[in-house]
Target: L-lactate dehydrogenase
Amino acid sequence: MKPLQLTESDGSNKVTVVGIGQVGMACAFSILSQKLTTNICLMDANADKLMGETCDLLHGVSFIGDCKIKGSTDYKDSANSKVCIITAGVRQREGETRLALVQRNVEVMRNIIPPLAKYSPKAIYIVVSNPVDVLTYVAWKLSGLPSEQVIGSGTNLDSSRFRHFLSNRLGIASTDCHGWIIGEHGDSSVAVWSNVNVCGVPLIQLNSKFGTPDDAEKWHLLHHDVIQSAYKVIKLKGYTSWATGLTISAVVRAILKTSFRALIKLSNLRDIRRGLLV
Ligand code: NAD
Model:
């Protein structure tokens, strides 16, 4: 049987993060602190901010171990990356939907994707910028790369939030609470109630109305909480970042370490197919 390979195994684990705003830096910090890479390239259009963030990380590199951290505005420095994470672009303001960002962020993709793809034609691209599902398609088209090389973060974050809310209500560790949110990231996402389980025990076996509007226990409101999560956090602190950084690092781990657990959690079916069928 041919071994499954997500990336070419030449020993390199270079990761490029384009867009070093709140989300990009949360991704970089999560990846570095878990020692998933020994070579990270940070890129942004804002050279001063880029220099500041790079220096700040470098000042702590002795706690990470042997790791090259480079900040650059020149796409040549991203060459031969194994994974490229795209977080550049505008984010939602309070009350604004993700879809409202589409025109501005398509323009950003036009600037970023062709040079990235030129220098790292074999990388796996993870699009995070919103509206993520639309921009993943745009990035794929702009890249000229095979579809399995361009994935989006999809509903990975939504599923993570779902697991948190399940855990919170059940009083059971979120690592033992499993559930998928599928479809489009955000407002129109869909909760897969039939699949929600705690350590493999489906909750629908315990409550046949689980997740339906007729359920006296009103579990379906958890999906509402998932959808409202970003709006709530943005209202409170202006942006979301940490949970996204953690979910993206789980995908990077899956790609670089060929561990499929996190990829299978990418509940957008097309993303799963793209991730696995290389
Ligand atoms: P931010 O404003 O903090 O950072 C955006 C960065 O992109 C800035 O540093 C900016 O200089 C840079 N940038 C803009 N245009 C660029 C270009 N052409 N080339 C290079 N860099 C460029 O925003 P943020 O809070 O980090 O959010 C980034 C994106 O991530 C937003 O679109 C946001 O909606 C999205 N997001 C997605 C998810 C998800 O689950 N998919 C979760 C949270 C946020």
Summary: DSSP finds nine helices and eleven strands in the chain. Residues 156-234 form a domain with the L-2-Hydroxyisocaproate Dehydrogenase; Chain A, domain 2 fold (CATH 3.90.110.10).
